[in-house]
Amino acid sequence: MVICELLGVPYADRAVFQQNAATLVAMDSTAQEIAAANKNVADYLADLLRRKDREPKEDLLSELAVQRVRTGELSLEKAAGLGVILLIAGHETTTNMIGLSTLALLRDPAQRQGLLDAPDSAPMAVDELLRYLTIVHAGLRRIAVEDLEVAGVTIRAGDGIVLPIQSANRDPDTFADPDHLDLARGARNHLAFGYGIHQCLGQPLARAELQIALPALFTRFPDLRVAVPVDELPFKDDASVYGVRALPVTW
Ligand code: HEM
Fold this sequence. Notes:
Blueprint: H1 2-7, H2 14-25, H3 31-54, H4 60-69, H5 76-106, H6 109-117, H7 122-133, E1 140-143, E2 148-150, E3 153-155, E4 160-163, H8 165-168, H9 203-220, E5 225-226, E6 249-250
Antiparallel strand pairs: 1-4, 2-3, 5-6
Helix pairs in contact: 2-3, 2-5, 3-4, 3-5, 5-9, 7-9
Protoporphyrin IX containing FE binds next to helix 5 and helix 9.
């Protein structure tokens, strides 16, 4: 809902991007399936951009349509492509982070209470949840632009590289007792948003959503608990963005 409101995408149309996003993050999608899913969302957004051009509102897609596409600075296709990245990256990640963080905190009443007792600690707590859960858990992909050596291994220019940020976030040299969730550890130097010039553009928004949503949820429902045994929960082991498919709760 948040990313839809920011972009000016009607929330009622969410099936379009939720279904296609599932294909985009499924580890067994073929290149053709990924291209088709991308095109479905891009076509939907190109159409929306045309409507925004005719009837602009106060949202990001209207600004793109009026200030960039109408002026010829960006083609409609490029603008729709930007919209696809923001819409998919902006909902798939945060949604999964909220679900998994809720589960982690439901399983650890003492830390959950600590968060509620000290609302100012929410930013630090969210960084630890980002580190501990590292939902982008299939590694980041890059191509080496020059020969380099890492830990005695030579990587040649042109080689493909997978950078497992999920392992870096459990590096015992950086985070003591890394498999333990410790909301007070101060995990600001984690890599859950990537690193370098391509690190997550939406991280201030993602942080704000998590810092607001988690304390609000547990304040509103102090007796919230998982309604099924945890080992029966359906986890997204087959998707490049990790999460739970469903989290039945009761209170
Ligand atoms: C907890 C939530 C989020 C997590 C864990 C996350 C994680 C990441 C990671 C790991 C990357 C780097 C990918 C790479 O280097 O290959 C990335 C890039 C990106 N993210 Fe996020 N993200 C989150 C939320 C968001 C939101 C809310 C938005 C949009 C509003 C967003 C938009 C983007 C964009 C546009 C990029 C590409 C940046 C570039 O290539 O220059 N993300 N994200």
